[in-house]
Specification:
alpha/beta, six-stranded antiparallel beta sheet, 35% helix, 13 helices, globular
């Protein structure tokens, strides 16, 4: 098997004795597990170690693979400059991952240039690996703002590349669990953190990686975790492999969850095709949604599918209701994938000759022009949910007290900067949160005075 094994490790700088200076005694189980990981990797003698780190270079719409021949790093940021590292990259494997991604138009590669300096998410486990083993090259990948299923898919493409060139590889997924486990922790205490760690430990202990994909962004945000996407990439690299999971340790004495796992590869197991199973379920749910969708959402979906598949913009024929021809209104079209926004574009006021043209233009823009995301790919179409919000009653307001984020959208305006937010967005519970988010979206500083408008929408799914 090209994959010799895999490890999940936390990355507290405190675990480095030259940094902890005795305070590392607060996490003795984690320290012991790092030693176990280092020794286990030395016994397996991989040619290449794949490091997946949430602190490597990352982008909202792209998976960056570290490029170049070599990277350096030290813990000078943590007042331990004499603890330094040098990693030589496995250039042929990097190129193979880029090629596999390019073949399916997946947004991953080295296009953003070389990353010459190692991050602490890589260096903390590397410290203990280097104690026992140095005869390897490395590949280092970052994460993205894309969906969890995209992270798993990225892992699958890495696996394809590994198999193509026949490398013997160990996977190290670096990531802490919740940061909200104690009042004195970095983000204080939140019940969501405790619940997250309970769930994730069960999933990782059972090797039930398909369940990683069902978490929503709000749950992860509340827990303030940093490893979930790294674990999802690792799961993709281990796709269709039979594993023996071992929980080496778990500690939360600092208010942060530190878990260390070892996964022994036992052989192939086609039934562990978790992304395929997940997408089958999502496709079924989307198909049922399409069957029940109204004519507005149907028009938006038709526009998206036609444009993505053929590059052509559909025209309004007689099969569509006359309301699309006779009315004018501002429209927003929102695309979601796996419950997360995949694109949203539109306008508060009508820009085109009729409502139908507005829906078609906004739908295509949401699929291809939302700068937060790459263009929608053909393979994604069966997984996309589409909704249309028709704007009504855009009016100026004098006070933030006139807002209700569940009922009204908001527009903030300062000079030539303008930001809008639809009503009913998850995670936006107060008028203050709604206004601050809209200001951030528009690039308006929080302390700047803004003109406020509210609007309501007729929501179509």
């Amino acid at each position: 098997m090209p994959i010799l094994g895999s490890f999940i490790v936390p990355h507290p700088p405190l675990a480095i004795p030259e940094i902890g200076k005795g305070k590392e005694s607060a996490i003795p189980k984690t320290i012991a597990s790092f030693e176990t990981v280092g020794k286990a990797i030395a016994e397996l003698r991989p040619e290449t170690i794949l490091f997946i780190s949430p602190h490597a270079e990352s982008y909202s719409d792209y998976f960056q693979i570290a490029d170049g021949e070599v990277a350096m790093g030290s813990f000078s940021e943590y007042r331990a400059p004499n603890v330094n590292f040098r990693l030589f990259y496995d250039k042929p494997l990097v190129e193979a991952i880029c090629a596999a991604s390019k073949e399916v138009s997946f947004p991953a590669g080295t296009k953003n240039g070389q990353e010459l300096y190692l991050d602490h998410g890589t260096m903390v486990p590397l410290y203990y690996i280097n104690k026992y083993y140095r005869d390897f090259k490395a590949v280092r990948v970052g994460l993205s703002g894309l969906s969890l299923s995209d992270h798993y898919r990225f892992g699958q493409l890495i696996l394809e590349a590994i198999e193509r060139i026949g490398r013997k590889v160990i996977v190290v997924a670096s990531g802490d669990l919740a940061h909200t486990l104690k009042k004195e922790g970095p983000y204080g205490y939140r019940p969501a953190g405790e619940e997250y760690d309970k769930q994730i430990l069960k999933i990782l202990s059972n090797g039930n990686f398909g369940e990683l994909l069902s978490f929503n962004r709000e749950t992860l945000r509340e827990a303030e975790e940093c490893g979930h996407r790294a674990f999802s990439v690792m799961a993709g690299v281990l796709d269709r492999l039979s594993l023996k999971p071992t929980l080496l340790s778990y500690e939360e004495t600092t208010g942060v969850g530190y878990a260390t796992f070892q996964y022994q590869v036992l052989g192939e197991n086609p039934s562990r095709a978790f992304l395929e199973l997940y997408r089958s379920r999502q496709s079924f749910l989307v198909k049922r949604e399409i069957e029940n969708s109204d004519i507005y959402a149907k028009l938006a979906r038709t526009a998206i599918e036609r444009y993505v598949l053929t590059g052509k913009v559909p025209t309004l024929g007689e099969e569509w209701p006359k309301v699309f021809m006779n009315l004018k209104s501002g429209v927003f079209v929102t695309i979601r994938k796996d419950g997360e926004i995949r694109g949203c574009m539109g306008s508060l006021r009508p820009l085109r000759k009729n409502l139908g043209s507005e829906i078609i233009a906004s739908a295509i823009a949401a699929a291809t022009m939302d700068t937060r995301f790459p263009k929608v790919r053909k393979e994604e179409l069966p997984l996309l949910s589409v909704s249309v919000d028709v704007v009504r009653s855009l009016i100026p307001i004098l006070s933030i007290s006139d807002l209700d984020p569940k009922l009204y959208g908001v527009v903030v305006e300062s000079g030539d900067k303008k930001g809008a937010l639809l009503p009913g967005l998850p995670g936006i519970d107060t008028p203050e949160e709604q206004v601050i988010t809209a200001m951030f979206k528009a690039g308006i500083p929080e302390n700047e005075d803004v003109a406020l408008y509210r609007f309501n929408v007729i929501h179509h799914v």
